[in-house]
Amino acid sequence: MLAQCSEHCAHIFHSFRENVTDSSKIQELIKLSHEAKSYAYAPYSDFKVGAALLCSDGTISTGCNVENAVYPLGICAERTAIVKAVSEGHRKFLAIAIASDMKDAIISPCGSCRQTLIEFGTEWDVYMTKSDMTYEVMKTGELLPHSFTPDSLNSEKISNAH
Length: 162
Prior knowledge:
about 160 residues; disordered N terminus; Cytidine Deaminase, domain 2; 5 strands
């Protein structure tokens, strides 16, 4: 019975994932990431970034970068979207789209954002876009190989025998 449920649940999830990551949903996610960058607070760098995060239930959480005069206190768009989604009860994500104003280059997540994304799994999609809405896509695990994940905390440790 459990095996039947697991197969059935896996099929439902697979179908759901196909439906929420079809071409029109991807384009919607990318469009929302480009819209989100208009809310960026970037008075120091004038480098505006937006993100749109697709949660497993179909909810989309957007975010933008918010700079601070104390530079390390700024927060990136990707982390804003994740924090917003998590604060609303979401823990499973299917995809994130990231947008900036760079004309000829894709925007990719910084190291801190890559670590934050990987906290929620190594197999979900990151759509890194250009200003013309074209994109490259990679899995979170591809963006941060040999990463430190929550599973790392459960690894067997050496004993400190005295």
